[in-house]
Amino acid sequence: MVLKVFFPSCCAFAESGILIGRWISEQNSAVILAVVHFPFIPAQVKQYLSEVQRVSKVTVSVLGSWSNSKQEKEESLSEFLKDLGTIFSHEPWIQISKEGDSKFWSCSTLQKDANSPKEEEIIFIYYDQCKVMLSHLHPPLDTAVSSDHKADDASKLSAIFDTVAKSKVLFMTDRYDEGPIKLTHWQSDGVEASIIVELLKQASVPACMLLAFLLSLVSGVCRSRALNFWPLSFLWSKLSTCEQLGHRLQHLQVISSTKKAENYTQLMRKANILVSLLVDVALGLLLMSWLYRKNRIGHLADTLVPVADRVAEELQSLLQWLMGAPAGLKMNRALDQVLGRFFLYHIHLWIS
C-alpha cells in the first residue's frame, strides 16, 4: 500500500529534530504538524503530546525524524535519529532528510519487523499549513449512489483538514515560550506576527488595486487633449522632468498591475523595475539623511557660496569687456549696452 506523508511548508527550513503529527491507519497516511528541536527529554515530549491529545481530541504522536544538515553528511546525527525510533515506538518510523539548501529531499521508512516486506512506495505531499488551518472542508451532502465515491474521497481529505484544524493547542507554543520543548510550525514566530502577516496579505490586493486606479487616472489626465495644445505639449516634450515623470508612471503601472505575468520575460521586467525603484528610494533616503546629519547642508552651502561669488565676478568683468571694444573690434554700441545691462542685471539678482 502507498504511504502518503503530508509535510508542512513552514517546516522546510527547521532545524533537525523529531516529527510529531497524526497517523491515519485507514488511509496509511501521516500528517506532520510540527518539528520538535533538540535538545529535549523524551519523557517531557510524551507528556506534552498527551496533554495536546487530551485537549484537542486528536491522536498526536511522534512519527519519525527530520534531518536538516548544514554539511554534506553527518553520520553521527543520522545514526542518532535512527536510534530515536527505539524510544518512540511507532510503526513505520518515517525518516525525512534535507541537505542544506539542496532542492533534493530524502524520505524513507524504517521497519522494526525484520520479516516485513520491502520498502513501500511513498508519496510526499507539501502543504501550506496556514491555509489548511484557516480553511473549512465539508463533505458533500448528496446521498445519491453515483456520488458515493466522491463523498468517500472527500471524507478522506476531510480527515487531513480536520487534523490540522483541531490542533490549535499545538500551534499556541512558539519559540518565545520558556518551556522545555521548542517547536516549528506556522505560528512559530508568534501569534501576533502571524496575524500581522495575514493582515498584510489581505491588504496588499486592495492597496495594489487602489494604486493602479490612481495611476490610471493620472495617466489618463496626462494623455488628455488639454495637454496636447501649445505650449503645454512643447513643455511636456522638452522638459526632462516631465519625461522622467512619464517613465515613472509607466513603471508604477507595470508593478501595480493585477495581471499575472504571461512569461518569464515579463516577470523579470517587473522584478527589475521594482528593484530599480527600491534602489532609487533607498539611495535618496540615504543621501537626504547624510545631508541633514551634522548640518552638512550648511557646510556645503558655506563652501559653494564663495565659489558662486567668484564666478559672478568673472562674468561681470567679461560682460564689461564685451560692452567696450573687445579685441579692438568696433561693435554696435547701443546694442552692446542693452544686452550688457540686461545680463548684468540678472547677475546682480543672482548674487543678491
TrEMBL record:
Keyword annotations of the record: Membrane, Transferase, Transmembrane, Transmembrane helix
Organism domain of life: Eukaryota
GO cellular component, one term: endoplasmic reticulum
Keyword Protease: no
Pfam families: Gpi1 (PF05024)
GO MF annotation terms: transferase activity
InterPro entries: PigQ/GPI1
Membrane-spanning segments: 203-222, 273-292
Any Gene Ontology biological process: GPI anchor biosynthetic process
Keyword Membrane tagged: yes
The protein, known as: PIGQ acetylglucosaminyltransferase
Native source organism of the sequence: Centropus bengalensis
